[in-house]
Design brief:
mainly beta; ten-stranded antiparallel β-sheet; two-stranded antiparallel sheet; collagen; C1q_dom; Adiponectin, C1Q and collagen domain containing; secreted
């Protein structure tokens, strides 16, 4: 059985003592002795407690200061409120340069356009109409000797024509590679000058040809032009093929 230290064996240290606990606060304090019955070296602090009517001496940590021994860890507390946003820090150093991007589309602009007109009336059907009045033909993709546009850049093209009708009815077609793609008919009204027109989008490959011609077996070739009346044929590339 553990021994209870006697007053002759223990003496209270001077200075600040440990806070009283237990049922005998007047006997709890800070003590110094030689051997307290546990085989432990001194100095030790000893707390005197009464349990089931027995007086038991319990060694604890040395009270070298005014602090008391730590108790059991309590439950985790609630999350506190968010603090005030701090002051913005200094600007960081530049990052590492990224990878080189993929090559972009060529900056070269593909151009193909023409605009031409008649210089006299047409009297021959079923052959390409030769527009010899040149308004624009910088790329020379229109051939004034044949009346045909030659595709040099594959892509989508816009074609239009505006015809002055006089003296005869007009039947005109726009051809692509020997195939009529668009038809226009206008009936002549006696003593009147009339107008006929048409337009279309066509996809062309390199080497394709486009032209206008009068169609039919009759005398429907009333396409007219003079110094105050024009009949025109126009075409240009909208955008080229990318593959």
């Amino acid at each position: 059985m553990q021994q209870v230290p006697q007053s002759g064996d223990l003496k209270q240290l001077p200075g600040a003592g440990c806070p009283p606990i237990g049922l005998y606060p007047d006997r709890a304090g800070q003590w110094e002795g030689t051997t307290l019955g546990w085989g432990l070296p001194s100095p030790l602090s000893t707390r005197l407690l009464r349990l089931d009517h027995f007086l038991i001496s319990i060694p604890t940590a040395v009270c070298g200061s005014d602090s008391t021994p730590e108790g059991l860890v309590g439950p985790k507390g609630d999350t506190g409120e968010t603090g005030v946003t701090g002051v913005e820090g200094p600007r960081g150093f530049p990052g590492t340069p990224g990878r080189k991007g993929e090559p972009g589309e060529s900056a070269y602009v593909h151009r193909s356009a023409f605009s031409v007109g008649l210089e006299s009336r047409i009297t021959v059907p079923n052959v390409p109409i030769r527009f010899t009045k040149i308004f624009y033909n910088l790329q020379n993709h229109y051939d004034g000797t044949t009346g045909k546009f030659h595709c040099n850049i594959p892509g989508l093209y816009y074609f239009s024509y505006h015809i002055t009708v006089y003296l005869k009815d007009v039947k005109v077609s726009l051809y692509k590679k020997d195939k009529a793609m668009l038809f226009t008919y206008d009936q002549y009204q006696e003593k009147n000058v009339d107008q006929a027109s048409g337009s279309v989008l066509l996809h062309l490959e390199v080497g394709d040809q486009v032209w206008l011609q009068v169609y039919g077996d009759g005398d429907s070739y009333g396409i007219y032009a003079d110094n105050v009346n024009d009949s025109t044929f126009t075409g240009f590339l909208l955008y080229h093929d990318t593959n």
